[in-house]
Amino acid sequence: MMFDLTDKTALVCGGAGHLGLPVSMKLAEQGANVVIADCNEEAARQGREKVSSEIPEPQTSWYKMDVADEASIVDTVGEVAGQFGGIDIMVNLAAAATPKTVEEFEPEDFGKTLNVNIAGFFTLARESAGYMEGGGSIILYSSMYGRVAPDPRIYEPPMKPNPIDYGVGKAGIDQMVRYLAVHWAPENIRVNGICPGPFPNVNKPAYKKDPGMQAFIKRLEDKVPMGRVGGREETAGAVVFFASEEASFITGQVLAIDGGWTCW
Ligand SMILES: NC(=O)c1ccc[n+]([C@@H]2O[C@H](COP(=O)([O-])OP(=O)(O)OC[C@H]3O[C@@H](n4cnc5c(N)ncnc54)[C@H](O)[C@@H]3O)[C@@H](O)[C@H]2O)c1
Predict the structure, then answer these.
(1) Cβ neighbours, 10 Å, residue 150
(2) pLDDT digit string (tens) for 252-262?
């Protein structure tokens, strides 16, 4: 069977979020044991419940883990590896940003964000790789705003501008993918990235009720060559692909899933 992940263990940081939950579901559907780790304990617990209630076969688990905290990463990864006898797949969907304009932004604001988007991504990747005996697959979530700047015309009030630290961190993740891919290639640990385009959570009550938010979605749609925003399940297939043997010679790639946003 193609894309078979039976007997693999996947640690999914942020695996209960908007894009993360479909990723956790798809990995479990393909047979992987799925461990959801999140700084939001309730989200992690509920996400695990959802996966195990819909896909009871592989094992599932959840952990509270803060990617901004090195000790929390080291402890969690060690416990997951102990519980499942190793780690085969690690997906990181965490993100941070400071909701400020360039004029409001303080240099120190970079520290907090990059502690998650750079230092945290690095530490979680390194700790996970330490338990990937014989090889593994690491998949890091980047963003279209790591490749192109946000078009300010899209972010009219009530939307706040997409802040500078978010995209700077994501551009760093793209380079981290390439660097770590080369570094761990001899150990058969592949490192790839997912670069989502616009995937607003349109089921949020704010999007449904607020005409300003609806206008924002329309401006996003108008900018996408395919004329629509992404559905939350539409990044999960690529994660399964990168995690599987079908991608056994693919490393150091960041795949844009953006309806063509970064093509023009
Ligand atoms: N949704 C989009 O439109 C979009 C677009 C481009 C890129 N992305 C990227 O895709 C990824 C997933 O996005 P999403 O929309 O699902 O976001 P989300 O906010 O729904 O989910 C992110 C999850 O990560 C968790 N998290 C945040 N900080 C953490 C930390 N320090 N430690 C552990 N967990 C932490 C959150 O609690 C949350 O459950 C993010 O990296 C995001 O930057 C999303």
Answers:
(1) 16
(2) 999 999 999 99
| Full set of structural domains in the chain with CATH | 9-201+234-257 (3.40.50.720)
Two structure tokens written together for 237: 């297939």
**Residue 13 CA to ligand 1 centre (angstroms):** 9
Task: Give 68's DSSP letter.
Answer: T
127 near 81, Cβ under 8 Å?
no
| Alpha carbons 87 and 4: distance in angstroms, whole number | 16
Question: Which DSSP symbol is given to 48?
Answer: H
Whole-model pTM: value is 0.98
Ligand 1, closest atom to CA 200? 3
Q: How many CB atoms lie within 10 A of CB 171?
A: 16
Distance CA 242, CA 89 (A): 9
Residue reference for tokens 């401006």: 219
Rounded to 10 deg, the angle between the 121-129 and 70-84 helix axes is 30
Q: How far is the CA of 145 from the centre of ligand 1 (A)?
A: 14
